């Protein structure tokens, strides 16, 4: 009978090292699954998404069957593999951008307006018009874990540190903070925010929530670091004594930007953007613009702000210097410029031109057009770098 001699410690370590090397080699030969270069473009008319590669400036796939995406937005899981898409028809859809498939889709309400993902990536919240309120879902299964009725349309939903969500109530003039860190939601209700808050923003440090008011001039801010947060009015009566124009399109979530130490805010019903000192919330300047601003988005680093406009002047983008507050460049990409998205370090900006069925790509420094991608009625553009930013 042949016996097998026990292996020496050195031999065991050698085999283990060989195994690790083999595994590493196998991994190196595995097709790359990185997602940091990817993004999604919403095709609103067809209920589909285009998967794009930033470095290649190209479309690499399409995901279909997401319902009504006429006012859609999305957020990413922390690993940047999954996106949670919020459709106008109340649909919440989880998609796998590597496999380019729908993982799961639920229709959780009749009319929705955006959503957010918790800071730990485990919860997804949806803001609803019909029925009013916010519903919260498990990010893995899309099972509902909390229903927060408000008796009002909810807007301006953002994530905040500490597994919290902050949102405003259009009809009630209030802002609620939902703390989801415990077994059941703990709701802090702040009344007296103002008439018809229409949108919200949270700063990158998670400290300040700002809501815009449609029913009156001015905005409201809430210090989320305060022991007892309370609403405080800012920029009151910024349109005082001036004729308010018809509002063709409301400024959007993210339609406000932080450029250096200044907030840049589209003025509702006016052809101008407002500049506000981020330290004391005092107005410091105004810039007359081509039309009613929709998005005022700061290039990463804050050196310039790119602004697009509401119908009927929505074929144009203006670039404003954040130091001089002067317009330094103007582009006319084409009919219905709906959205802009910067690459993570601000080298390029991608622009959706809905009625031309394409997305244009520009050098954000020289303004040279670098390329374009064909898309069906494109609206929102979302790169995966958003996964690591508060409020996006």
TrEMBL record:
Record bears the keyword Chloroplast: no
Pfam families listed in its UniProt record: Cytochrom_D1 (PF02239)
SUPFAM superfamilies recorded: C-terminal (heme d1) domain of cytochrome cd1-nitrite reductase
Signal sequence, renumbered to the chain: 1-28
Key words, A-Z: Signal
Matches recorded under InterPro entries: Cyt_cd1_C_sf, Haem_d1_sf, Host-pathogen_enzymatic-act, TAT_signal
Protein name: Protein NirF
Species assigned in the record: Rhodobium gokarnense
Organism taxonomic ancestry: Bacteria, Pseudomonadati, Pseudomonadota, Alphaproteobacteria, Hyphomicrobiales
């Amino acid at each position: 009978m042949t016996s097998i001699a026990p292996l020496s410690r050195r031999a065991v370590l050698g085999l283990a090292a060989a195994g690790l090397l083999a595994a590493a080699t196998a991994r190196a030969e595995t097709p790359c699954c990185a997602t940091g270069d990817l993004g999604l473009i919403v095709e609103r008319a067809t209920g589909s998404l285009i998967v794009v590669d930033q470095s290649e400036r190209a479309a690499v796939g399409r995901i279909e069957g997401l319902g009504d995406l006429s006012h859609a937005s999305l957020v990413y899981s922390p690993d940047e593999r999954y996106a949670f898409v919020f459709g106008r028809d109340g649909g919440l859809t989880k998609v796998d951008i590597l496999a380019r498939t729908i993982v799961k889709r639920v229709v959780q309400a009749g009319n929705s307006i955006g959503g957010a993902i918790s800071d730990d990536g485990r919860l997804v919240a949806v803001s609803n018009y019909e029925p009013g309120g916010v519903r919260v879902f498990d990010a893995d299964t899309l099972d509902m874990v909390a229903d927060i009725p408000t008796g009002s349309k909810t807007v301006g939903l953002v994530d905040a540190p500490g597994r919290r969500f902050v949102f405003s109530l259009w009809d009630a003039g209030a802002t609620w903070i939902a703390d989801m860190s415990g077994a059941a939601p703990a709701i802090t209700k702040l009344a007296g925010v103002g008439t018809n808050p229409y949108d919200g923003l949270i700063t990158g440090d998670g400290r300040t929530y700002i809501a815009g008011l449609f029913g009156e001039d001015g905005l409201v801010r809430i210090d989320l670091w305060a022991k007892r947060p309370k609403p405080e009015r800012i920029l009151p009566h910024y349109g005082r004594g001036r004729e308010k124009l018809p509002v063709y399109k409301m400024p959007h979530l993210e339609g406000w930007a932080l450029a250096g130490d200044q907030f840049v805010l589209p003025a509702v019903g006016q052809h101008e953007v407002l500049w506000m000192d981020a330290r004391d919330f005092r107005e410091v300047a105004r810039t007359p613009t081509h039309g009613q601003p929709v998005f005022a988005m700061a290039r990463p680093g804050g050196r310039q702000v790119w602004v697009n406009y509401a119908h009927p002047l929505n074929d144009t983008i203006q670039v404003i210097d954040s130091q001089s507050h002067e317009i330094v460049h103007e582009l006319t990409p084409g009919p219905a410029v709906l959205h802009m998205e910067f690459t993570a370090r601000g080298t390029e900006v991608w622009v959706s031109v809905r009625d031309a069925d394409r997305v244009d790509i520009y050098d954000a420094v020289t303004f040279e057009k670098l390329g374009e991608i064909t898309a069906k009625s494109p609206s929102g553009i979302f790169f995966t770098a958003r996964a690591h930013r508060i409020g996006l």
